[in-house]
Amino acid sequence: MNLETNYLGLTLRNPVVASAGPLSQTVAGIRELGDGGVGAVVVYSLFEEQLRREAERLTRLETQFEDMFGEATSFFPEVPNEGAHPAHRYLRLIEDAARVSEVPVIASLNGVSVGSWIDTARQLQDAGAAAIELNIYFVPGDLRTTSAQVEQRHVEIVSAVKQSVSVPVAVKLSPYFSSPGHMCVELDRAGADGLVLFNRFLQPDIDIDRLEMVSGVTLSSPNEARLPRTWIAILRGHVRASLAATTGVETPEDVIKYILAGADVVMTTSALVRHGAGYALDLVVGLEDWLTSRGLTLEQARGMLAIPEAASADAFERAGYVDALQKAKSTYGSLV
């Protein structure tokens, strides 16, 4: 069966994509993901903070030796090997992986401000990245920050990167906007070629024995897929950008549900970390078998259960909410 998929204008052999994570930190890991069956690989993220620290280090070096004169030919400052710095390592990884990978390699930039780190997008493009994924991980802790300011920052970052590169740009964003749908439409208008729904905020917990905040990363579970599926079903047909689903993918059934909601591609890291890179083929085969059993093509299934473009999404979602409460009464009693 033909599972060929268009994502960001790129032609993928299937819609299962390895999202940014620990399996894509080496050329060998990226090749293993490709051999495992994914349609594309998003490389682990390069952070704005890493680039800022490197820029500050170079500034300190320049300042330290700015009074040296040309005749001091016997003096050369000790400069660390450039390969030791995150940006140089990352660029080399993209370059090497793009040369040997059988699937598109997508670079990932993680940042929250409009600044010089954005220029790195052009370097990633030049290194061979097929596309750039912007992971805008912004938690506005300043209580004076308005929702409009948060949204405007996202738009400005996307606009700045789009002006810097010619390769496609996807935006990975969180669901925590006052109106996620409007934010997606604004990013679409700003030129985003893809929307990745959704980022998972790594919220801290509390250790009651040590009396301190503790942070950590947990792998996603299928229950977390309901929120991104809902918004993909709403956005399908209303934005030009490709729609990528991420979070909560564990089985072929999860992939199928996202496709039915309208996702162009379905991304996963958690399932591949749990089961290995080769598990991607299980997801692909499971999707293929289901389509065959239903007599459907991939394009026929994609968006089959999205909210119809002519329907009122507000009324549709409200009706679903009321219906869910009515069904729950038979199990739990009245919940309201």
From TrEMBL:
Work out whether the entry's keyword set contains Flavoprotein. yes
- Looking at the keywords, is Lipid metabolism present? no
One function term, GO molecular function aspect: dihydroorotate dehydrogenase activity
Record InterPro entries: Aldolase_TIM, DHO_dehydrogenase, Dihydroorotate_DH_1_2, Dihydroorotate_DH_cat
Database matches in SUPFAM superfamilies: FMN-linked oxidoreductases
Which intervals of the chain form a coiled coil?
Answer: none
This one is known as Dihydroorotate dehydrogenase (Fumarate)
Q: What is the annotated signal peptide range for this record?
A: none
Q: In which pathway does it act?
A: Pyrimidine metabolism; UMP biosynthesis via de novo pathway
Query: One Pfam family from the UniProt entry?
Result: DHO_dh
Q: A GO CC term?
A: cytoplasm
What processes does the entry annotate via GO biological process terms? 'de novo' pyrimidine nucleobase biosynthetic process; 'de novo' UMP biosynthetic process
Domain named Dihydroorotate dehydrogenase catalytic is located at: 3-288
| Cofactor dependency | FMN
Keywords in UniProt for this one? Flavoprotein, FMN, Oxidoreductase, Pyrimidine biosynthesis
